[in-house]
# Entry
Amino acid sequence: MLSNNISDFENNKLNFDYLFQLLNLGIIDKVEKSRYSLSNTSIITNTKNNYTIGVNFPEEILKSSNHLIKQQYLGLTIFEDANINILDYEVNKMVFILNHSINLLQQVKLIIKNWEPVVFNDLGQITKLEKYNSEKCSWEKSNDIIESNKLYKCYLYNGNYFKYLYLFKNKYFLIEPDEYEKVNTLKLIDANKSLFKYNKLSGEIKLKSYYTYPVYLYKIMLLNHIMETGHIPVNNQFKIELKQFLKISKILNLNYTLE
# Structure
């Protein structure tokens, strides 16, 4: 296992950022509550060109295909050929097709419908509420009024323990602190336009370096960029056709800026 528990990172923002970076790159995966491990050795191809991505490849495979390596970064290896000799290793094989990945995305309201609501009166003693300000991308103190379609940190019993709380169509949903995908998806609702800046001249979407995006969204951008360019993205800038990005933004109801 790479990490013992998510709490190991709580007092060290730098380490916490590294954790999300590894998740975004697909080098580690969440295997159970608050526990992570190295992702399975995988090879990802595409139908547009010969660029191939190797994830957590053993040294033997890397040595046998060294002449095909275009770039390496942490546990990712980009090859210039789809015919990689994986020797006798068991390797997961995947094909990345952008349109298929986009079609698998769901609207946030449909995602929420699959969650289990809770009875508000059963939450216990709430000592403090903080509301997420999607425009400022920050948390702020809140009064006792819980608004619909807003994300809250709900502190129970004392000022140290909290769960996330979300009100949607008169139903309350509790989210555990380590359910990052749920939280980061909800944060995108009415989010600041600066989180997604599309440059029509370069055909790239630029994401904020300090912001934690949902892993599934980041991975789509990452894989598409690598398959288009053969390179790891630099400065959080990802190559993607405008029409494809607009399809994503429509499904997830993203605010964005065109430059």
Summary: The chain has four domains: 6-38, 42-96, 102-107+191-258, 117-175. Residues 102 and 247 are 8 Å apart (CA to CA). Residues 6-38 form one domain.
